[in-house]
Amino acid sequence: MENRKNQTRTKETSRVEAFSDGVFAIAITLLVLELIQTLHAQPGERLLKKCLEHWESFVAYTIGFITLLICWINHHVAFEYIRKVNTTFMWINGFLLFVVTLTPFPTAVLAEYLGKESRTALAIFGVNYILIAIAADAICTYAYNHHLIDEEHREYYYSYKLIYRYAIFFNVIAFLLCFVSIVIPIILYSILFVFFAAPKEFSSRLHKRRINKKNARKNK
Amino acid sequence: MENRKNQTRTKETSRVEAFSDGVFAIAITLLVLELIQTLHAQPGERLLKKCLEHWESFVAYTIGFITLLICWINHHVAFEYIRKVNTTFMWINGFLLFVVTLTPFPTAVLAEYLGKESRTALAIFGVNYILIAIAADAICTYAYNHHLIDEEHREYYYSYKLIYRYAIFFNVIAFLLCFVSIVIPIILYSILFVFFAAPKEFSSRLHKRRINKKNARKNK
Amino acid sequence: MENRKNQTRTKETSRVEAFSDGVFAIAITLLVLELIQTLHAQPGERLLKKCLEHWESFVAYTIGFITLLICWINHHVAFEYIRKVNTTFMWINGFLLFVVTLTPFPTAVLAEYLGKESRTALAIFGVNYILIAIAADAICTYAYNHHLIDEEHREYYYSYKLIYRYAIFFNVIAFLLCFVSIVIPIILYSILFVFFAAPKEFSSRLHKRRINKKNARKNK
Amino acid sequence: MENRKNQTRTKETSRVEAFSDGVFAIAITLLVLELIQTLHAQPGERLLKKCLEHWESFVAYTIGFITLLICWINHHVAFEYIRKVNTTFMWINGFLLFVVTLTPFPTAVLAEYLGKESRTALAIFGVNYILIAIAADAICTYAYNHHLIDEEHREYYYSYKLIYRYAIFFNVIAFLLCFVSIVIPIILYSILFVFFAAPKEFSSRLHKRRINKKNARKNK
């Protein structure tokens, strides 16, 4: 049984996963080009001084990398239960990839403008996060509604897809706060990072709470 | 039976698909480098103003991304029925990959010249589309004629490959109209995008019409 | 039997092939960056004039692309018969990948210097070809001598590996002729392209001749 | 039995391996962009003179390539015995990929500053090596402690993971020596290259010595 399912999955979703993996891998590696760019900026300067002066580039690089790695981990988990793909689903996944390939741009914006126009730079990065959350929500909701997922894990997948719905609201709030503060959105984004670093553990906890609530209601 | 076919496919076409997927994934991700380039253009300017002034870059990026995503989806569908490869087929596929890797160039042309020399920029992008259509037609026609495809779906594949033959003519017309207008070719390319966004659905409809016509002729 | 062999191959060589495919795919796609570079060269110029003036870039791009595609096709054929890998083999394959990743450099040299210092530019590209031929010969000879290949096709593989030995000598001659002429090495490289575009067909013909000679000798 | 294990591996670790392979392949291929950069530096100069003057770029390219190839070979061997992955493990692997994608930066530093500030450039590259060794040690130790590896090879894997623990100390010493000498760290890094070029052979020898010592102690 397990074997049969695995085979089906290989056939239908493998090329979409391979293509997505490729896009993720390249986007995450291209970030370094922006870092190398800083080396060529002022040729006369001393190496260590130059590296220290461009600390925003290193911060932006790290943020961009963690963002894309979290995206990939979540994509990996979401696809674990997906058994079939269709044209609409490929376009929704394509929208996610669009935002993923775009990510080096707000990362470069951060590197260049974190010191100068920090609020605008952070807000542009925030738009990116909202788009990622919308894409992730769309992927999971579509797969759930159109029965592309493993029927066995349907109940769990419902809880799983909820976390991306929450993420949209969370990101919109963080984005709006970029215009009044710098510290608060940074704290909010850090909380987001921690939760979505382990989407499986996060959604499992949510799932248990939902099941418990249901049972409590039944028992009443 | 299904299993056996799947195995054969894994063995013969998988490396061609993996290599093609890699090329598609990289070409689609490299587009962002052109976008980042605009950030370094005039260092003194304010961030938002710079982003708004370079709107052509964002438009070009989106067009380039959708073009390559449509290409990949069509490549994916075309290869679903292909069971064998030979040296000639690899060269035809190589020609498609040549046009795919080239695509970031007309995209950069669009970004740079859409505001200044819109007709020439659009015409260069149009040449790219003609080449893609020719390559897609060549892949499907060769696979069909040399029996590289699944014999079961031969009848359907005939209808499928027809859509790329039509696409060549459509693209040549759109290209020629670039020299007299800007709005008409943009409308034509948008129609093209809609149809080839879902090549399976498009060709299935065509296939049904062909079957119906055939039956009608028989009944006469 | 066929099935068992296929499985073995999947396990031992698949990750080497996947990594190599990735390197080939990226190297072949990075070539376009050099082409885009020409767009940013003289900002004031008209689009078509700029494209025509930089014809060397387009020629270099095409040569670079065909070179890497031929490399990939040959790598694909060579690995078709390889069943096992070991550390030494991975380093020999690593040397080939080193030359492959280097290829965008001589391509950029061609683009920049084909009009100015054509002989030196061609000679640098020639060094690249010699290195590729040495790497291809080393891969096949090592796989043959250390029994990493399918024992069934051992006889044929001997003929196959011969073509890369010949290629080394051919490339050294073409390289030396770069210092006295421009036309002759271009003709020689074109011949090389034609033969190695279809390595399977080329080596099969060679194999038949070898078998015929053997039989003729026996019959004497 | 063998077959069953192979299947399990395919399912659980394949996407992590595919993503890692992609990142390695791209990082190793991006190195050439730094090399091409030197071509555009002083446009007026003669080709051969320019290549000879920028010898540091070629040295840095070769060092960067060998570094990443060694990393990949070691990653390949470490994953050969890993059967399961979990979220924490994906983050540890993510940290390795972070250092891998970063590697083109210290390589570019080497290319630019090897002639001018050799000690600082070497020390920055040294930090990279320390981070790689820490990441490799973390991957193997975590996989060993949390039983993600094949139980059969547990004893051997213990010896295998030891080599990365040693590598950390070795790299810290080499890094510190960068501040007093240039020749000594280069010799130390060359020794490192030789040992980690064949991690399987290196750890097997270590394993045998450990087993022999154990037996000797028993016999006492």
Biggest pleated sheet of chain A: none
Radius of gyration of chain A: 20 Å
Q: Give the proportion of residues in helices of chain A.
A: over 70%
Count helical runs of chain A.
9
* Span between termini of chain A: 38 Å
Q: Which pair of protein chains has the largest interface, and what are the residue counts?
A: A-B, 35 and 34 residues
Describe the structure.
- Four copies of one chain form a homotetramer.
- Helices cover 84% and strands 0% of the residues of chain A.
- With 220 residues, chain A is mainly α.
- Chain A is built from nine helices and no strands.
- The two termini of chain A are 38 Å apart.
- In chain A, helix 6 (118-145) runs antiparallel to helix 7.
- Chains in contact: A-B, A-D, B-C, C-D.
- Chain B binds chain C through residues 7, 10-11, 15-16, 18-19, 22-23, 25-27, 30, 33-34, 37, 87, 90-91, 94, 97-98, 101-102, 104-105, 108-109, 112-113, 116-117, 120-121, 124, and chain C through 3, 6, 17-18, 21-22, 24-26, 28-33, 35-36, 39-40, 46-48, 51, 61-62, 65, 69, 72-73, 76, 197-198, 200-201.
Structure keywords:
0% strand, mainly alpha, homotetramer, 220 residues, 9 helices
List the helices and strands and how they pair.
The structure is a homotetramer of 220-residue chains.
Chain A: H1 2-39, H2 47-53, H3 55-80, H4 87-102, H5 104-113, H6 118-145, H7 154-177, H8 183-196, H9 199-219
